[in-house]
Amino acid sequence: MTAPTPAAPADSSRAPSSGAPTRVLVLNSGSSSVKYQLLDMEDGARLAAGLVERIGEETSRLAHTPLKEGGERRERTGPIADHAAALKAVAEELTADGLGLDSPELAAIGHRVVHGGLRFTEPTVIDDAVLAEIERLVPVAPLHNPANLVGIRTAMDLRPDLPQVAVFDTAFHTTMPESAARYAIDVETADAHRIRRYGFHGTSHAYVSRETARLLGKAPEEVNVIVLHLGNGASASAVRGGRCVDTSMGLTPLEGLVMGTRSGDIDPAVTFHLKRVAGMSEDEVDVLLNKRSGLIGLCGDNDMREIRRRVEEGDERAALAFDIYIHRLKKYIGAYYAVLGRVDAVAFTAGVGENAAAVREAAVAGLEELGLAVDADLNAVRSGGARIISPEYARVAVAVVPTDEELEIARQTFALVAPAP
Ligand code: ADP
User: Fold this and answer.
1) Distance, CA 83 to ligand 1 centroid (Å)?
2) CA 73, CA 48: separation in Å to the nearest integer?
3) 321 alpha carbon to ligand 1 midpoint, in Å?
4) 219-256 per-position pLDDT tens digit
5) Cys bridge to 45: 7, 102, 118, 334, which one at CB 3.0-4.6 A?
6) Based on the domain organization, do 251 and 320 belong to the same domain?
7) Which atom from ligand 1 is nearest to the alpha carbon of 295?
8) Of 116, 108, 112, 113, residue with least CA distance to 133
């Protein structure tokens, strides 16, 4: 997820009844890391944020930033054995800032959960049945759901009395029609193994498509938006009237755009070929496509800043990697234009989308006939805010809309647990 940004208004949160708790702790638990933010939903203020990395190693690190005025970033290094120890350390840091997890002001804990399958179309208060269902989805999300579950169970042990809410990365995409969600493979086999396109980054696509509508001064129901979430992982989505109708990631986050280390779309027969002809094992192919492909596989770097620096210096491999990245992006813009029929805006978000003007310019170049263009001066402006970068005459707005998955998770969590006004 991208770095914390200053407080933004929490417009979708319910007005708190006086005295009711308004804080939400957002937890994003990975296999060896926990990212967190504490937000106050009364005004959307961010109170603290941090990250525990390398859990289970000797060199674990906790970086904690109190976001109240005058708060200074603190760091702890040294072994943190497991997620329980990590969360305990986070709780201690929050307590030191007067924001402890035992505070009566804490309304809920919101957990990012990567895979919610088809069952979870909305944020959900976690109970034993929900835990069991997230567990049942481990075979389709073997890297993510187990880590999310550890984070949830640890938080539940810490505050068993508090509502814990799961916000699913897949939920926003459950509105995709079957024509977009089904792979064209044998139906019985697909259904028996729950093979279909689920999509990911849904929290970001939901937030950014809504913020884009707001930027255009319209309601989400009124606009069709192509969202390009370009981080280290990257995905595109086609959103019609606030509902997702297609997205580029599939059964797993491997499908779609060229990413930092993932190949994105590829002929599945390449995997047979690698096994039969190159003698690679299943796991080796998995690692190749997920960790050693995409930008890093093409040119040895997965940071777009470094790639652009090399391109400027005339490095041919970096230039080819950039061109392949842009070519794929452009294909998805065209495809989703066709899927939507009418497009009101194309929104760029996440680390690359928000910061790499060269990517935005190249992705839209040559698409004037589709009503798409970027104004060079507007595109060059560096700003943390949502903004339109297309010239006034363009039929389709091109926008930069910073994503904020933590705020979206906090909003959805709070909306579920706050007493109705
Ligand atoms: P994720 O959450 O998927 O890890 P982010 O959304 O934080 O990813 O994006 C990380 C990526 O953003 C980096 O790998 C880097 O390529 C890119 N990035 C960050 N800042 C810039 C910048 N100023 N210019 C170009 N690319 C940038």
Assistant:
1) 26
2) 10
3) 16
4) 999 999 999 999 999 999 999 999 999 999 999 999 99
5) 7
6) yes
7) 16
8) 116
